[in-house]
Design brief:
- Two copies of one chain form a homodimer.
- By secondary structure, chain A is mostly helical.
- Chain A has helices at residues 6-21, 28-35, 39-45, 49-74, 78-94, 100-106, 113-139, 149-170, 173-185.
- In chain A, helix 4 packs parallel to helix 7 and helix 7 (113-139) crosses helix 8 (149-170).
- The A-B interface holds A 20-22, 24-25, 98, 102-103, 105-110, 116, 119-120, 123, 146-147, 151-152, 154-155, 157-170, 175, 178-179, 182-183, 185-186 and B 20-22, 24-25, 98, 102-103, 105-110, 116, 119-120, 123, 146-147, 151-152, 154-155, 157-170, 175, 178-179, 182-183, 185-186.
- Chain A binds a DNA duplex through helix 3.
Chain lengths: 189, 189
DNA sequence: GTCTATAGGTGGATAGAC
DNA sequence: GTCTATCCACCTATAGAC
């Protein structure tokens, strides 16, 4: 097993920094110190911070979608899929991180255009998957809800992101779990 | 009516900046430019940025609690109180702002200790008021929910903050309204 | 209270040697 | 690919005149 290449290691460290401190809350100096290289080396891999940011979101979405495919492969029950979906958020929070794109949503006003677009692309993909699960659950009567699946998907994402953000400020996992459980329970038939 | 004093005008401008760009997304130079004074003048009123941040949260909480008292004075119906509570968020969002403390929750990892404490104080006060409304609604059977009022209050705050944050990224008020309506409807008896 | 001037630090970014 | 050295813009903050 080769060591992960430098670009990937940079992304790993930058990802954690954005998730804990925000895109405006870290600098190349932070990454350089953590990797024991100079700032100049980092600019070889990612010329501008905006490049780093965009690549960060793209990789995050790719990994997230892979996790969703993993859920699809592991279970066919709609309620169980939603539980595992919420469990992904829970794992991120347990690591004291915020969702990358939830964090960027707060900083939206200061982001380069490309990052704004990539961020929305992430939420769109997210909600498309949820709409599929919700439609399936409604069809086989394992889920019940009023309104469109798209509206419910938006509510779910918003509720989980918001609960995550606040629970992190209280360093209280239980707070997140209780909200997640309540939210999923509201879809029980 | 005297013009608002300088400290208040600084707070007004800083408040909007934090709500749109985050605490790490603006500088004294931004305020100075907007007020047509020098940065040095600002330091006379708020020696350090951390002082400004803390006073910002304290004033925000005071104003928010006053708005909640206004709701209590205007109506005695629990469901109507919740609708007006959500309408406050909606008004903030319509102005292209995020909730001040929702924004700070994202930046939590980088905030001075005093600001962290003040921020949680805001959410605590917020939830205390909601718990009162929820208890009243349960008692007079105008609201129905399972679990404790405290859990529901936390879910409400999280759902509204999260929906707000994401809707702002899409510049889509409808997105927020639909989530808020759904969330309140889930408490109907 | 507000100004000019400035200190001392950090930000992102580049040139050019190795 | 990584380094040293450096640029310049910007940051928070202070001293001292007015």
């Amino acid at each position: 097993m080769a060591a992960p290449d430098t670009s990937q290691r940079i992304l790993d460290i930058a990802e954690r920094l954005v998730q804990t401190r925000g895109f405006n809350g870290f600098s190349y100096a932070d990454i350089a110190q953590s990797m024991k290289v100079t700032k100049a080396s980092l600019h070889y891999h990612f010329p501008a911070k905006a490049d780093l940011g965009a690549r960060l979101i793209q990789r995050y979405e790719r990994n997230f979608l892979a996790a969703l495919q993993g859920i699809d492969a592991a279970t066919s029950s709609a309620p169980e899929k939603l539980r595992r979906y919420a469990a992904i958020y829970e794992d991120v929070l347990r690591d004291n991180r915020m969702c990358l794109c939830g964090m960027l949503a707060a900083e939206f006003g200061t982001l380069p255009k490309a990052m704004k677009d990539d961020m929305r692309h992430y939420f769109d993909a997210n909600e498309r998957w949820l709409v599929g699960v919700l439609a399936q659950g409604k069809k086989d009567k394992t889920l019940r809800f009023s309104g469109s699946a798209a509206e419910v998907a938006q509510s779910l994402v918003g509720a989980l992101e918001g609960a995550m953000m606040i629970a992190r400020s209280y360093a209280d996992m239980g707070r997140f779990k209780s909200v997640a459980d309540r939210t999923l329970a509201s879809l029980a038939p």
